[in-house]
Amino acid sequence: LQEYEGGRDAEGQRHGLGKARLPNGDTYEGEYEHELMGVSSVPNVFQGTYRFKNGALYTGNYLQNKKHGKGVFFYPDGSKYAGDWVHDQRQGFGEYLYANGDTYTGEWANNKRHGQGTYVYKDTGSKYVGYWVDGIQNGPAELIHLNHRFKGRFLNGKPSGRGKFIFDIGCEQHGEYIQPVQEKEEEEEEEPPLPLEPIWKPSEITKFTPWCPHDEE
């Protein structure tokens, strides 16, 4: 069913270093232990390289034929992930370089940005430093721009509630983001309307203060 060159155990199973070409055109070169890829008692050692027919490539740890441990995945669109894997999922800590040049460095769970992390937008140089839930910006965070930054909370990828803008000139603007109410149309539309952007409502301008989003809790 597939081509294989390499070591075998006493029962003829693939064991030790070997190279295989799979029926779908993918190839694997690395360690085997009794027919399974990349099983080893030594953790965090690059044990195998898997080349996909579509141009993707993974090099790193395997456990029972699944990406597990440390590894680097090069995707066909030019993006790259380097970090922790658990049973074929990006999970733990890792860095993702996206095809458009953006980067995310932080925590992952089930292939999604989850936990604390930093996302850098290449085009603008802006940076989101804060929390994520299932790939969406959620929780206390700081959005840093060229000459000012916003500290507050995010909900479903948008700023929400109390926060403040901090300007490099030495002052802050305090206020809150309010979600506008969606007006109902007399006739129902076929597609649901897009959610409205939150509106910033300033309350005061002050000098620098030590307040941060955690204070609300």
TrEMBL record:
Coiled coil: none
Gene Ontology BP term (one): axoneme assembly
InterPro entries noted in UniProt: MORN
Domain of life, per lineage: Eukaryota
Biased composition (Basic and acidic residues): 1-14
Keywords: Cell projection, Cilium, Cytoplasm, Cytoskeleton, Flagellum, Meiosis, Repeat
GO CC, alphabetical: motile cilium; nucleus
Span list, region Disordered: 1-25, 181-200
Subcellular location, principal: cytoplasm
UniProt-annotated location(s): Cytoplasm, Cytoskeleton, Flagellum axoneme
Pfam families with a match to the protein in the record: MORN (PF02493)
Task performed by this protein: Functions as part of axonemal radial spoke complexes that play an important part in the motility of sperm and cilia.
Protein name: Radial spoke head 1 homolog
Organism (species): Motacilla alba
